[in-house]
UniProtKB/TrEMBL annotation:
Gene3D superfamilies: Voltage-dependent anion channel. InterPro entries: SLAC1/Mae1/Ssu1/TehA, Sulfite_efflux_TDT, Voltage-dep_anion_channel_sf. The chain crosses the membrane at residues 21-44, 50-71, 92-113, 125-150, 162-185, 191-215, 222-240, 280-305, 317-339, 345-365. Belongs to the tellurite-resistance/dicarboxylate transporter (TDT) family. GO terms for cellular component: plasma membrane. Its main location: membrane. It is a multi-pass membrane protein. Keywords: Cell membrane, Membrane, Transmembrane, Transmembrane helix, Transport. This is C4-dicarboxylate transporter/malic acid transport protein. GO terms for molecular function: sulfite transmembrane transporter activity. It is found in: Cell membrane.
Amino acid sequence: MSKAQRLSYFIKHELLRSFSPVYFAINMGTGIVSILFDIFPYGQSLSMKILSLIIYFLNIFLLFTFILWGLARFYVYPHDWTAIMKHPVFSLYWGCFPMGAVTIINVSVTVVHDYLAFGGKGFLYFIWAMWWLDVLISALCLWGTVHYMITSQTHSMELMTSVWLLPVVTLIVASSSGAIVANALQTYSHIHALITVTVASFIVIIGISLSLMILTIYLQRLILHGLPAGVTVMSVFLPLGPTGQSGYAFALIGRDFKSLLPVPTSPAPFLNWPYSGQTLYMICTCASFLQWTLASLWILFAIIAIPSALRKSRIPFVPTFWGLVFPNGVYASLTITLGQAFNSAFFRIYGAAYAAGTLILWFSISCRSLVYMYDVVFNTPIMTDSRSETQTLDQAAATDLANEPTTASLEPKV
């Protein structure tokens, strides 16, 4: 094959088909780093906001790249959509899409609208509309994926991992974003802000309730069958997602209720009670601290588990390592937020240190991903011309690709 033929074959049959919803975890990890620069408790200045914005725009670019990549794959290989949805693992990663988008919504409000005063009311209401769309997609991920798990997939206790949490955490992540949007909406509409924070409360309770049920099953699986094998052992950090993010959501929701309630003109006794806002603030702050303690519990489990797994075998790098960044990042953001609520030096210092560790983790995985991608693109057999020159393009395609997608074809390669 000529170089042009090899490149065309690689793009259509290898690069294009290597898309996986796993890649939206990159948006989650990159987005949480942007948020951490925004809320970091020390050294807040224009420089920190600029760093947050740089990563914010990078995240937007990555999100649209992955969306277009996925659309191209399913346009060329429409049967792959069904294959991914039937896959008991890869289908769960669709939850990464709305969660990655939420990080963009958050920074759009706190940095772009609030700090830079960009766009005014029109921009904020556009972001509000995007939040409602994200809530809808998150709800589809939760109920749709769980329904598919029940009716169309085969699962077992031994093979169960905390990846089951991914479609469930979507509503929790959306709820924290709703609280951020509601805080900004207060300037323009008290009723819109109150509706938003109420919906955020509704969905975070749904999300954390189902998450705690799954975490109970996951703990039972660990006790009965031990740690997950191979690279899947890294999923032990995923419980930080629902626990840390729900704590962060409760803290922000409580702050909003404190400023939005009471509503003296409301005929509802609950809304016009003078202490309604303060009471809900106290309840939400206590719930936030409770979730922080649960997240700390799972961090210790994870820290103990990783060395134990490394003693058994080496853990190779795979794209799913990106799933480590977001859970650790939300734990850091929760810790920093509690430092503000309690005016506690311990929480501020601990949160800042954990945020710095998350940044190092993000940078390390980013560098390793670039090396991984380079190896895949430039060392793949079709690009190094290791195939026989007498083998035609059609023969290569017939050899390498089945008519229907297989599990191997779903594995992310880039």
